[in-house]
Amino acid sequence: MSNNTTDLTTGFISSAVAVVLFGSNFVPLKKYDTGDGIFLQWVLCAAIWLVALVVNLILHCPKFWPFAMVGGCIWATGNIAVVPIIKTIGLGLGILIWGSFNTLTGWASSRFGWFGMDAEEVAKPLLNYIGATLSVVSAFVFLFIKTKIPTNTYSTDTTPLISEHVINTTPEPSPDYTWVDKLSTVQHRIVGCSLAVISGILYGCTFVPVIYIKDHSKRNDSIYAGASQYDLDYVFAHFSGIFLTSTIYFLAYCIAMKNNPRLYPEAVLPGFLSGILWGIATCCCFIANHSLSAVVTFPIITAGPGLIAAMWGVFIFKEIQGLQNYLLMIFAFCIIFAGVLCTVFSKL
User: pTM of this prediction?
Assistant: First the structure.
């Protein structure tokens, strides 16, 4: 009983830390122009890989399973759309939508044993179903929340001194406009929400290879027989897949741009900080998965960050305004909170 209590405590604390960091990791980038996001992604993923390197050394370099890299490849592919999503529908709404679809995909694949994984059982299945359903319902509520995103996000989100500097250089940004800047208001909404849904589905599949290896490690006839049951042992392989994939995408981007990629030096340090925060959050997510199981942690860790991100969007960046939007957001938060409680009690 003592070990079970310790696992539950560790799992829920790790989940809470992951929720806060996942909901805040893109905040350092809000004041800086990130262009089309390809260069930013590479910087962010370099920082993520360094976090994994430190964790790997602390764990005394556990066995490296290449298949675990596939999850990182899937995540890096979904993450390419993050900058366009933030530019079109905002940080708060973007995380809310992709988090909800992340929840559905990750929960369903773990609960029903998709992609060759073993189906996970919980003490109270009905509560678990209700919790996952409420997370999905919240996603549709978020789609009706309207956001106010300026054409040049970085200029309006900065301090007055920086804003004055941008005003003096108004004629210059036009050559650096990306395809996102050319979209109409309606197109912003459609493209942003669509990309957020796609990214959320891809994010929901990122842990599949690790869970697959763990499940098949119990079978003597599997090539993964004897593999570690501790999720954190796979972080280095997972993050290596992220860095490798983002590097390939960045090189392809350089080729497509004829060796003249759009680089944004002012975004390097904020991007690096963002990557560090994301890397720590994901390590906490791995710990939570080990302590609670993915079928419990997914609804909590993927739906919770939307609350944190929305708080940033409302109180700091003023992306979400108006009484109707506030009421819709509060209603969605109540649904998420109820869903999280159902998920938590389904394990107890």
Answer: 0.76
